[in-house]
Amino acid sequence: MSDKARPAIVIAATPTSNGDLHVGHMAGPYLSGDVYARYLRATGRPVIYTTCTDDNQSYVVSTAHRRGTTPAELVETSTAKIERTLAAMGTLMVGLPPIDERYERTVLDYVTELHAAGRFRLRTVRLPYAKNAGVYLYDGLVSGTCPVCMSGSSGGACENCGHPNNFDELLDPRYSVDPADPVVYRERQILVLPMEEYRERLSAYYASRTPRWRPHAKQLIGELLARPLPDVPVTFPGTWGIKAPFTETPDQILYPWIEAMPASIYSTWWAANRLGRSGGAVDEHWRAEQGAELVYFHGFDNVYHWGLVDLVMLLAHGDRYTTPEANVCNEFYDLEGEKFSTSRNHLIWSADLLAEVPRDLVRFYLALTAPEFQRTNFSRDQLHSVTTRRLVEPWNALADAIALALVGVDAAEPLPTTEAGRRRAAAMVERFRLCYELPHFTLGRAAETVITQLGRLRLLADAVDVRGNGNAPAAPGDLLLEARTLLSWAAPILVDIGDQLTAEGVDLALGTEGATSVPVFRFPRLPATTATAQSRPLLDSAR
Question: Fewer CB atoms < 10 Å away: N or C end of the chain?
Fold first, then answer.
């Protein structure tokens, strides 16, 4: 199978349906996954970009209690908001698949087959328990101190250092719903997936794949492999979630993180149907013989789950499924110097920002400041000043310069290009390609490359001689070729500009930088944003 024909599956971390997506979420996996998927599609690759809501997470229960609603009502309203936000951002996702009977059947079939194959073990574990409420605590229902880095943490995994804290490992546990409720410990039998049994295969996988990972995530995987790998809960004594189908654990639910892989498989199947590319088994696109390139986009706080637990969930099925080529992992995105926080109302909802600022400018600023290798910061004032000074003004100045340079040119006839112009266009392509392709995918450098080329092309436009002087520094055909090359490679980020030009008949296909002639077209202008003082405050203080 040629690289161009190889199908791709791009999975963004499944959002918990306990609220909308704020700007910190969007600057992480969702924009990055979309740009990568758009790039693959532009190269001619068949690509499915998808995710689904994580309805059965315990955070739904704790958030619903805090907001005075029911988990089911919270899921319904949150899913609608998340879907609208993803559409407003212009992602390639064809929607969010329903978490329905087909979803549940996919999950149950996946885990039942593993159970029948003897992949799970029955263990007696010690669990925190809210004495008055009579509730076993896990993940979003419990908070305390991480036993590894000693920072505040929820159950399951530490957001700060990424290490897991299963069962009774979290220090000073408190019931998140009622911190005054005494927490005691009780022993229960549950089914687990013993990750240590997969150490040899995991080590081989990471040796070949983590060179493609970002340094912080790669470091965490090394730390996890340096100690005995934990048992992953498969079932848990709870009430919110899918009822576990196993006789050994009556009245238990499936641990929600166990759903992630079958959920992603289901989402891929559902999206493929919407795109007219499916018709077979639910897991057809994930089968190893399909040869798909599988790439995950998620945050550092999910490296343990998406990078280790979910990998073992695939390996437990033997060689049936493809495994991810890479996990593209982002750090945290701060708001005005502090972490986004729903509980403290310190956030900006993505939908609110997109309602105030042109979408391409939002996408560009989030790309430019994306928290790829370290924490970065969002500022509404900086969004205005940076996009105005570094993108909109030089972009529109280039549009004016190109229009002036082409005065008197016959727009009905394609303009010839020169070898020098084609060489410059090819050099530009190589800079963009290095930004978009694995293992060095980076939105930040792609956005910086757009800025660099704007300045260069502005000087080129000033040097154009439409009279055909053989000694002129630049030919009009070269200017248009290089401008079209810039537009083509900026299109995965600037989606509205790309759609506008495509509708006008401009060919933005990648690989046209070697063309010997180029049709005359109008270089588009970008809309402006406004300063914070000219618009209502976007910091949310009511939700």
Answer: N
* Share above pLDDT 70 across residues of the chain, in percent, rounded to a whole number: 95
pLDDT, mean of residues 360-369: 98
Average pLDDT over residues 384-389: 97
Rg of the chain (C-alpha set): 25
Cα 53 to Cα 60: distance, rounded to the nearest angstrom = 11
> Do residues 405 and 280 share a domain?
no
- Write the pLDDT tens digit of every residue in 443-495: 999 999 999 999 999 999 998 865 555 555 679 999 999 999 999 999 999 99
Cα–Cα distance measured from residue 155 to residue 173, given in angstroms and rounded to the nearest whole number? 9
Q: Exposure of 431 by Cβ count < 10 A (0-12 exposed, 13-18 middle, 19+ buried)?
A: middle
**Whether 305 and 439 share a structural domain:** no
Does the residue 336 lie in any domain?
no
492-511 burial by CB neighbour count: b if 16+ within 10 A, else e? bbbbbbbeebeeeebebebe
Number of Cβ within a 10 Å radius of residue 25: 23
Domain of 399, in residue numbers: 359-371+379-518
CATH code, 41: 3.40.50.620
Count of domains for the chain: 2
